[in-house]
Amino acid sequence: MKRRTAREKSFQVLFQMDVNDIEPDEAIEHAMEGPSEDSFLNDLVHGVTKYRQEIDQKIDGHLEHWTFNRLASVEKTLLRIATYELFYNEEVPNSVAINEAIELANSYGDEKSGKFINGVLSKMLK
């Protein structure tokens, strides 16, 4: 599976986990219609789950005029994935992590989601 596809599936899995409060492996099996053999997808889902509290604090510390709890689930989930890639996965270049998050925000969020995601992630790297 290409990494772009793995990110999209990871987004779907993590979004489902956030909305339905289910475990990572169960959410992966549901989204993939069986166990996932993709190591990148598994790393994203389990990594975001493992470091979720730290990731959420990083995101919250870089929001302006917003609180973390007010974020829509789409933006929250995409920020979590990108933050994990930026700070916990050294294989992915920062520019790729940010660009991929913006692309997914443009697909799944509203017309302002991509700009919002870009702004928050860019502040994290300053």
UniProtKB/TrEMBL annotation:
Residues 5-126 form the NusB/RsmB/TIM44 domain. GO terms for cellular component: cytosol. It holds the Pfam family NusB. Belongs to the NusB family. GO terms for biological process: DNA-templated transcription termination; transcription antitermination. The lineage of its organism: Bacteria, Bacillati, Bacillota, Bacilli, Bacillales. HAMAP family: NusB. The keyword RNA-binding applies. Keywords: RNA-binding, Transcription, Transcription antitermination, Transcription regulation. GO terms for molecular function: RNA binding. This is Transcription antitermination protein NusB. It comes from the Bacteria. InterPro entries: NusB-like_sf (IPR035926), NusB_fam (IPR011605), NusB_RsmB_TIM44 (IPR006027). It comes from Sediminibacillus albus.
